[in-house]
Amino acid sequence: MAEKKKPNPIDIHVGSRVKLRRTMQGMSQEKLGDALGITFQQIQKYEKGTNRIGASRMQQIAAALKVPVAFFFDDAPKGSTPTGETTEVGSTSYVVDFLSSTEGIQLNRAFVRISNPAIRRKIVDMVKTLADEVGSPES
Q1: pTM listed for this prediction
Q2: Is the pLDDT confidence value at 1 over 80?
């Protein structure tokens, strides 16, 4: 029996960025699929990185989500070196995971509505202080 091929780190990253933007827009997989003329199952496969997104489809997704194509490659992992060694996969995946969560979306939407930079800075300082006092789950 053939071993399942693992998705390419770039495909996983691009898929997570599609999911991030889709959830930021409050759009369901079904609605995005409808806009592209494909099923929500196909959107799931793109978001997991199990199916690679072709160039023309990437352009359609970018238009539907109202972002430039480059958005999907921001902070992308470096991939493989010419010797075949895999370099470090993006250390920002925790940010994508958080921003894709219900709490992350709610926090992000509320935070961007605060127009006063001084208040925004104080909120960031408060969250840092709370995090230092409470500690991380690893500790």
Answers
A1: 0.64
A2: no
